[in-house]
Amino acid sequence: MSNHSLPKYFRQRFGKPHLDLACHAAFPLALTPELLYLLRENFLPNTPYIAVADILLILCDPVGYQLYELDPKLRHELLNDLIKDSRFGETRLKQLSDFMVAYIKQELQTNDYAAEDFGAAPHWTALAYTNSQAAVKDIAQALKNALEKTPADWVKLSYLMESYADTDPLIKVGFEPLLTLSRGWEAKARGDEETAEAEFRQLRQQYGDSLKFEDLELKIPSEGDDSLSTFSFEVVTVNRRGEITKTETKQAQYFTENLGDRVTLDMVAIPGGKFMMGSPQGEGDKDEYPQHQVTVSPFFMGKYQVTQAQWRAVAKLPQVERELQLEPSRFKGDDLPVEKISWYDAEEFCKRLSKYTGRQYRLPTEAEWEYACRAGTKTPFHFGETITGELANYDASNTFADEPKKEYREKTTVVGSFKPNAFGLYDMHGNVWEWCQDHWHDDYQGAPKDGSAWLIDADDNDNQIRVLRGGSWFLNPEDCRSANRSRFYPVNDDNLNGFRVVCVGAAARTM
Fold first, then answer.
1. Cα–Cα distance between 155 and 181 in angstroms, integer?
2. What dihedral angle (degrees, nearest 10) is formed by the CA atoms of 366, 371, 374, 380?
3. Which of 53, 338, 354, 432 lies most in the core, judged by the most C-beta atoms within 10 Å?
4. What does the angle CA 153 – CA 154 – CA 156 come to, to the nearest 5 degrees?
5. What is the value of pTM for the model shown?
6. Residue 236 belongs to what H/E stretch?
7. Nearest CA to 291 among 387, 420, 386, 380?
8. Residue 444: is it exposed, middle or buried by C-beta count within 10 angstroms (0-12/13-18/19+)?
9. Are the CB atoms for 152 and 146 separated by under 8 Å?
C-alpha cells in the first residue's frame, strides 16, 4: 500500500476521529506514546484511546526506544489535510506550535535529547504551512548562527533541517539550496571533504558565491576553502652557546573549536611530508635507534598543550566510557597545562571532544608527535643545537651544550610563554610530558613507516605501557630533545603528565 493511500485507508478502517488524531500527530518530528496521548487529551479528547496504538503501529516506524516517526511524505500529506480542514486550519497549527514549545521545554528538564528527538524549532512547521517564506528565512538565520559555533551545531541543525526536506511549501520558496548548503557543512564537519565540495560546487554553479534571503546572506565556500584562519609568529634558531643566530617570521593556518563558556581550542594545520625519525648515532639512547624515514599525512594539532580551562570544559561533557575529575592538576591555573592525567583520561577527553564537535579527535601517534615537534629541523631541539631557560620550561640549572645555566622553575608555566617552532606549535620541549597513542617498544626495529600508531598485536593490551614525548618542567634538557622517548603504564597520573590533541579529516589536506 502506498503512503499516498494510507490516510484514506486509515479513515475507512477506523473512522474520522482516528484520522484527525493522525493529522495532529504529524506536527511533531517524532512521537512517543506519551506525547501522542497528550495531543489527544489537549486537542481531541473524544478520540478513542486505542487510536494512539493504531497510529503508532500502522502509520509510524520505530526509530528508538519508545520513539516513532512518520514517513516525511505521509507527514506532509497529513499536515496538508489538517490545514485544509475548516475545523482546524492555521489556528490549530499555531496552537500545536505553542504546545510543542511548552512540551519540549518541560522534557529538557529530564531528557537531554528532547530538542533533537522532537525538533528544536516546532514553529518552523507552523510557518511552513502559514508563511513559508518567513520559515525559510528563519531557518537560514539559524544555519548562519550554527556556522558561527561548533561543527556539532552544524550537524544538529542539519539533522533538523532534513526533517523538512519533503515539505513542499518550503521547497517552493527556496528551501532546497539552503538544505544543500547545510548538507555540505554537515559533510565537512564529519571530515568528508569530497561530499562537501560536491554540494558546494552544485550551489556555486547555480547561485555564485552566496545564497541571499532578503537582507540575509550565506557564503558558499569556494573550492579549496577550508575556512581556516592564519596567524603569524616568530621562530628563533640558537647555536651551541644558546645565542640566537636567526629570527624568522612565519605563518600557519588553524581553526578554532568553541568549547563553551568562552573557552576555545586552537588547532594548527600540520602539512604532510617525510622526515627522519629517531636520533643519529651518538645523540640519544638505544631506544631512539635506528633512525628511519617516515611519511606523515596532513593533520591538525593543538597549538598548545591542553590547558586546565579546556580540560574542565570537556570534562563537563557527557561521559563516554569513564569519569573525569574536573580539577586533577597539582599546579592550579586556567592557562597552565592540565597535568596528573593518565593515558585513559586523555583518551576519554578525546572521545568526549569528538562527540561534542563532530570531528575526529585523538592522541597523536609517536611519529606524528616527533614530526610536528621537529617542524623540518634535524637538530636535537627545534630551536637548534641546544635549548635555554628563555626558550622552554625545564630544569635549566643543568645544561645540554655550551649554554649558560638558568632558572629551574620547579612548576609548570602558562602555555605559549615561549617561542614556537616553525609549524606554530608551542611548548613542544618541556612543561609537561605528552601522551601518544603508541605502545612502548624498546627500539625502532620494525616500526611503521606511514606515521601510524605502533600497537602491540595482542588480544588484551589495555594495560600495555604507552609512550610519552617532550619532557617536562622537572627534567634535564637531555630529556626534552625532539627524539627523546619515555614510557608509563596508562594508569599513571603523575603530575608531569599532560597531552595535546590531534584532529584528522576535518579540513586537513596536503599543503
1. 12
2. 50
3. 432
4. 65
5. 0.60
6. strand 229-238
7. 380
8. buried
9. no
